[in-house]
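_Per-residue structure_
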Amino acid sequence: MKQVMNQALKAKEVERHRAAVLRMEMDYELATLFEALEEKNESKKSQCKQKLERIRLELLKLKAL
């Protein structure tokens, strides 16, 4: 029983760590998107939006678990 509890705690810690990493990635992509908007760089803007969507979906999945 102790082992199961330890594994559950480790899994929660991994999820929290992943969520923190995703938030940092999101901040970076938002900054990059801002630069692309200022530069009027459509391809860079599109790439940033795609990455932000992937991050958003992953964060939603983490919250649902």
